[in-house]
Structure formats: structure tokens, C-alpha cells
Write a structure and sequence with these properties.
Layout: E1 5-8, E2 11-15, E3 26-29, H1 32-40, H2 47-64, H3 67-78, H4 85-95, H5 102-135, E4 140-144, H6 158-167, E5 173-177, H7 184-196, E6 201-203, H8 208-213, E7 219-222, E8 226-228, E9 233-236, H9 239-249, E10 253-256, E11 262-263, H10 280-283, E12 284-285, E13 288-289, E14 302-305, E15 312-314, E16 319-320
Length: 324
């Protein structure tokens, strides 16, 4: 399987997610500034992948900078995007080895990468077992945003579970919520499902709760960018609406994320800084402006699903159920 992000001959290589599904483009990032720009542009995205990106970015910085310049590069990496906890954690973990030299930093960064790969496999098995337990042998699942190998390194979180159910012959169908405004579901999740040979349907974000109410979805399964100490889940904006729909329909709402996304130091979702994205993302569709001149926009990249709407949280190490 092609890796979303990796260290290749002294540089970071990524699959540029802004080019999908039209083209599969591998970009080689040789400087910290190039990597930071790629993170901010969502060329590399997904909480686990961002943790790997942060760690590998410190490995780049250790080879390029010294003293104050090195500290500045590490800070730029750590703050490139504020909401997903994995990015800052990956940066800090690799930066803790700076005193031991560039080779030690790279070794730590590669360990972060390898742990995320192993984590995806563990989550897939554990999550598939739970879905079968809760929903029976052929569930119809709705997922939001992108949580496959593109969001990790290979495998995935929620989409990794879907892939495992498909491999077991125990999947009834998949609805991929399009995930406005940048269409990570319609562009990326649909592309990955096609690569896996999984039959799917794409639905507009607002259709999700109605499909649940009509009995067309047996469970919602999503990833997370941060899981707070009380079980509140921070994920791509639109997740909260799907959780409310699942509660109303009486179906499970499941979150799949690695232990590296669990943030016991953040008490609740209300303590998380939510990233606001540029207005232009809302104003345009397919490269064409669709709002009147003078319009304003509000564009939070994430929302917060309260813990009491979450049926279970699956990590690579454990399955958590209420009370969190």
C-alpha cells in the first residue's frame, strides 16, 4: 500500500490530497516551510498523519537549523494547525530528542510513523468486532470526512474498520457524507472506498440524519482530531449533526481514533481551540464563486460532539464506553 506520508532519502514525501481524486501526485518536501505550507493547505491532513508530519518536520529542522532558528522552526510546525492534538504531540515527541542529534530525532520520528501504522491495524480489528457486536453481520454505515490511509499512513481509523468489515464479508453498505466545504468525503473517502472495491454512496451532509430516520443507516462511524478527558469528541464540522441524528434514530455513534488522539490534559471540548478556515472555502464551489459580493462567512473546521452522544470510542488499545 502507498503511504500517505513517509521519510524518503532525506525529505518528507506526501500524497497531495488537494489533487485527489483527479490526480495522484506525490510531493517531496525538503524544508520545514514547505511542510508547514502543505499542512496549512491540507495537502497532508488527518490527525494521525499530522502527528507523523510534525515529527518528521522536526527531523527536517534538526538538519537545517541551529539554536534560535531551530526553536522557531519547531514552533512553526507545532502551531501550523491548532485543533488536532496529534500534530503538537508529534512535534514535541521528536523535539525531545534534539539534544541527542539529528539521527536520534529522525529515529524518534520514524517510531511515531511505525506506531501509527501498527495502530491502524489494531483499530481495524477491534472496531470491526464492535460494529458486528452492536449491529449484526451486515451493517449499513455512514461515515463523515476522511479517515482512511490518507488520514493516517496506511490503513485508517473509521475507514480502516469499514475496510476490515469488507474483508470479512460483513459489510452491508457505506454512505460517505460529502463533508463540506472541501469535500473530504466526496473526494477522498469515495476515492479510497473505490480503491478498496467497497460499494458506496455519497450523500450531502444534511441528508445524514434523514437517512438514519428512514432506517437506511445502522450506525455512524467517524474518526477524531481530539478526544477530551470527559469523552467529548472534536472532529470535522458536521460530525455533531450526525451524532444528534444517530441519537434520535436510536443507532450507535462510534468514534475510532488512536490513543495518540486521546488528550487527557484537556478536560472538555469547550477547552479546545477550534480552527477557523478562510472564507473563500465557503464562497466557492468547483472554483466558481457562488455567493453575492459582500457576503460574510463563518467557517469552523471542526465541531464538538458531547460525550453523552457517543456510544463507544475505539482506540488501538481499548474500547471505551460511557461513562467516560
Amino acid at each position: 500500500m502507498v503511504r500517505t506520508i513517509d521519510w524518503v532519502d532525506g525529505a518528507v514525501e506526501i500524497i497531495d490530497q488537494t489533487e485527489l481524486p483527479a490526480r495522484t501526485v506525490t510531493r517531496r518536501l525538503s524544508t520545514v516551510d514547505e511542510l508547514v505550507a502543505a499542512i496549512r493547505a491540507l495537502a497532508v491532513r488527518g490527525a494521525p498523519a499530522l502527528g507523523v508530519a510534525g515529527a518528521l518536520g522536526v527531523a527536517l529542522a534538526a538538519r537545517q537549523y541551529r539554536d534560535a532558528a531551530l526553536a522557531g522552526a519547531v514552533h512553526r510546525l507545532e502551531t501550523a494547525r491548532p485543533t488536532a492534538v496529534n500534530l503538537a504531540r508529534g512535534v514535541r515527541r521528536a523535539a525531545a530528542r534534539l539534544a541527542d542529534g539529528p539521527d536520534a530525532v529522525l529515529a524518534e520520528a520514524l517510531a511515531v510513523r511505525d506506531e501509527e501504522i501498527a495502530s491502524s491495524a489494531a483499530m481495524a480489528a477491534r472496531g470491526a468486532d464492535l460494529v458486528t457486536e452492536l449491529c449484526g453481520p451486515a451493517p449499513r454505515l455512514l461515515t463523515h470526512c476522511n479517515t482512511g490511509g490518507l488520514a493516517t499512513v496506511v490503513g485508517g481509523t473509521a475507514l480502516g474498520v469499514i475496510a476490515e468489515l469488507h474483508r470479512r464479508g460483513a459489510l452491508g453498505g457505506v454512505v460517505a457524507s460529502e463533508t463540506r466545504p472541501l469535500l473530504q468525503g466526496a473526494r477522498l473517502t469515495a476515492w479510497e472506498l473505490g480503491q478498496l472495491g467497497v460499494a458506496y454512496q455519497v450523500a450531502v451532509d444534511g441528508a445524514g440524519p434523514f437517512l438514519m430516520a428512514r432506517g437506511m443507516v445502522d450506525a455512524v462511524i467517524v474518526g477524531a482530531d481530539r478526544i477530551c478527558a470527559n469523552g467529548d469528541v472534536v472532529n470535522k464540522v458536521g460530525t455533531y449533526a450526525h451524532a444528534l441524528g444517530a441519537q434520535r434514530a436510536g443507532i450507535p455513534f462510534l468514534v475510532v481514533a488512536p490513543e495518540s488522539t486521546v488528550d487527557a490534559s484537556t478536560p472538555t471540548g469547550g477547552d479546545v481551540e477550534i480552527e477557523d478556515r478562510p472564507a473563500d472555502e465557503v464562497f466557492a464551489f468547483g472554483g466558481r464563486r457562488v455567493v453575492p459580493d459582500g457576503a460574510a462567512a463563518i467557517n469552523p473546521a471542526f465541531d464538538i460532539t458531547p460525550h453523552d452522544l457517543v456510544t463507544a470510542i475505539v482506540t488501538d488499545r481499548r474500547t471505551l464506553r460511557p461513562p467516560y
